[in-house]
Amino acid sequence: MAYNDDEQAKLKKSNAQAAIEFAISGRWKEAAEANQAILEIFSNDLEALNRLGRAQMELGEYEEARKAYTRSRDLDPYNSIADRNLKRLEVLMASGVRPTRGDGQGVPAQAFIEEIGKAGVAVLSKLAAREVLARVDAGDNVSLRPGPGVLFVDSLNGEYLGVVDTRTALRLLKLMKGGNRYSATVVSSDDNKLAIMIREIYQHPSQAGQISFPARLSATAARKPDLDDSLADEEEVDHSVEGTEKPAVADGEAFAEDDEDNDDDDDDDDDDELEV
Fold first, then answer.
1. Which neighbouring-strand residues pair with 189?
2. Residues 196/153, Cβ–Cβ less than 8 Å
């Protein structure tokens, strides 16, 4: 069936909205179909290609995802989303790792909403090796593991991912010792940067009046999250962090000392931001 220009524009808009909603709710097959419907009419649509690649990656269709992202990068050589995900796919395909989330498991919108005082974003340091980071993605739940003066972040499979910045970690460790509980969700991930949303899910009565994420922490440690690669545009990150094996808890003191030595540089570390 032939469509005029207005009809094509309406179809593109409705399918794009549907594709994003399907992705958020984890309906990856339907998300892929919605993006393919756009590409049948607009074969060079970069956003649809990026979203299609993401959906196919979540479904474990790595070769098809690679084709979508390659097409996207060919059309725009400066497409950081496609470039980063092609690198991630290279690691996943080489390691034989399958998706950690299947169809029906999406990116919960609430996970990306930063509540004043109750939630904050932390960009991790001391990152794990890139093959480990390739196994986590935006929307994945992660666990917080207290150590002496350090707050480790692990995947739900127990793999070490990185550490929370010292200033935020020391405050949260004190509140956790007092009975507070926190959840954590990945909001942005690539092979050299990992950001998580930490959310207070229970405040112990003894901690009443104690704010988990005061404004000064938000200004120095937190960055605004983006809705991941294919759901929103983002700037390319151009800095490297050396991978590290999962450390013993006893190493936490050394980690804390290293970070405290660099506290004065925290605000000037880098200019890249995570944007909604």
1. 194
2. yes
Can you read off the two tokens belonging to residue 272? 């890249």
CB 133 within 8 Å of CB 194: yes
Answer whether 57's CB lies under 8 Å from 86's CB: no
Residues of the chain short of pLDDT 70, as ranges, are 1-3, 96-116, 191, 215-276
The closest of 208, 84, 68 to 137, measured between CA atoms, is 84
d(CA 186, CA 244): 19
Q: Is the dihedral of CA 127, 235, 73, 240 positive or negative?
A: negative
Q: Which amino acid is at 249?
A: V
* DSSP symbol at 99: P
pTM: 0.48
- 185 forms beta bridges with 141, 197
**What does the block give as tokens for 87?**
């690198």
